[in-house]
């Protein structure tokens, strides 16, 4: 009955991870905890990099925008899934689904581009320290961030333009916790999805170019660091750069597998697992890997929490 009804509706049915309501509630609570932690971490970074005058270098400027993208990306998919799971209904309207596709692909692309810019910033800082202020001047940094945000609108626009021409002939059941492009293609008629696949291939090629740029930046960084006389300095750079590469590789590899995998009739658990690795984990882990392990940021956070103004506001709220 549910499948027949959803076929006649304009929207879609998100199946999520289970059709058992008790498990849905458990999954909702797990996603809620993840969302709160990820949002808190990104919000903290945005706050302290904005308020602390000592954190106005290009590195922290880019970190702030990475956190903005991460916070936005998490907010596109996770709250909707939590609401659907708690309500026991996976229905999502066509317009809501298209908005999820648009904003998720936009923010994911923006995150990849800002990560590429950040790797170049670290490359210049470590390999050309004497020329760093000239190469990464404020005007160029603002220009780079402007390009990041403007280019982030391209993937969503391309996907919406191609998906709007798709005819959905099959039951509108999406075996995913959000409106993901690969799952939408499985509902299409005949070869309607070829345009979307063309967009996915184009964006994957661009993503691979970004990944090559990131890898080359870190290769030069590592080669420079290995020539450092200080073992402590080498260890510090390696402990920071290797987790960066791991998260970027995880984000790109899982996303590429999902978006370039040929559409299959039967859903698999791997599809759901991959979606976690390119939707929820990177925005949640980035605050820890990129920022909260940074001594300057932790010092700025302690200074903010111990400031008289903050303590006064906290005391006022407590008494209220």
Automatic annotation (TrEMBL):
The keyword Oxidoreductase does not apply. GO terms for molecular function: G protein-coupled receptor activity; olfactory receptor activity. InterPro entries: GPCR_Rhodpsn (IPR000276), GPCR_Rhodpsn_7TM (IPR017452), Olfact_rcpt (IPR000725), Olfactory_GPCR (IPR050516). Keywords: Cell membrane, G-protein coupled receptor, Membrane, Olfaction, Receptor, Sensory transduction, Transducer, Transmembrane, Transmembrane helix. It is a multi-pass membrane protein. It is found in: Cell membrane. SUPFAM superfamilies: Family A G protein-coupled receptor-like (SSF81321). The keyword DNA-binding does not apply. GO terms for cellular component: plasma membrane. Residues 41-290 form the G-protein coupled receptors family 1 profile domain. Pfam families: 7tm_4. The chain crosses the membrane at residues 25-49, 102-120, 141-161, 193-221, 242-261, 273-292. Belongs to the G-protein coupled receptor 1 family. Odorant receptor. PANTHER family: OLFACTORY RECEPTOR (PTHR26452). This is Olfactory receptor.
């Amino acid at each position: 009955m549910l499948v027949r009804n959803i076929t006649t509706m304009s929207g879609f049915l998100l199946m999520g991870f289970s059709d058992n309501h008790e498990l849905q509630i458990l999954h909702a609570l797990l996603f809620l905890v993840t969302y709160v932690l990820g949002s808190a971490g990104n919000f903290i970074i945005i706050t302290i990099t904005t308020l602390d005058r000592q954190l106005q270098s290009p590195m922290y400027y880019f970190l702030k925008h990475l956190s903005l993208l991460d916070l936005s990306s998490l907010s596109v998919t996770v709250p909707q899934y939590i609401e659907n799971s708690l309500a026991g209904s996976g229905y999502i309207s066509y317009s809501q689904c298209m908005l999820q596709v648009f904003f998720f692909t936009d923010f994911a692309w923006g995150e990849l581009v800002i990560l590429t810019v950040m790797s170049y910033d670290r490359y210049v800082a470590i390999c050309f320290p004497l020329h760093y202020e000239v190469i990464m001047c404020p005007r160029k940094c603002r220009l780079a961030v402007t390009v990041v945000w403007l280019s982030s609108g391209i993937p969503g626009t391309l996907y919406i333009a191609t998906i709007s021409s798709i005819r959905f002939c099959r039951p509108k059941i999406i075996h995913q916790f959000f409106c993901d492009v690969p799952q939408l293609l499985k509902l299409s008629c005949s070869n309607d999805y070829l345009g979307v696949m063309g967009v996915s291939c184009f964006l994957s090629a661009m993503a691979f170019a970004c990944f090559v740029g990131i890898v080359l930046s870190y290769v030069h960084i590592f080669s420079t660091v290995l020539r450092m006389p200080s073992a402590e300095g080498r260890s510090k750079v390696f402990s920071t750069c290797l987790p960066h590469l791991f998260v970027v590789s995880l984000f790109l590899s899982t996303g590429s597998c999902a978006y370039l995998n040929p559409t299959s009739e039967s859903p698999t658990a791997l599809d759901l697992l991959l979606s976690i690795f390119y939707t929820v984990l990177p925005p949640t882990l980035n605050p820890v890997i990129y920022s909260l392990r940074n001594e300057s940021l932790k010092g700025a956070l302690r200074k903010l929490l111990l400031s008289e103004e903050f303590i006064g506001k906290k005391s006022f709220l407590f008494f209220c």
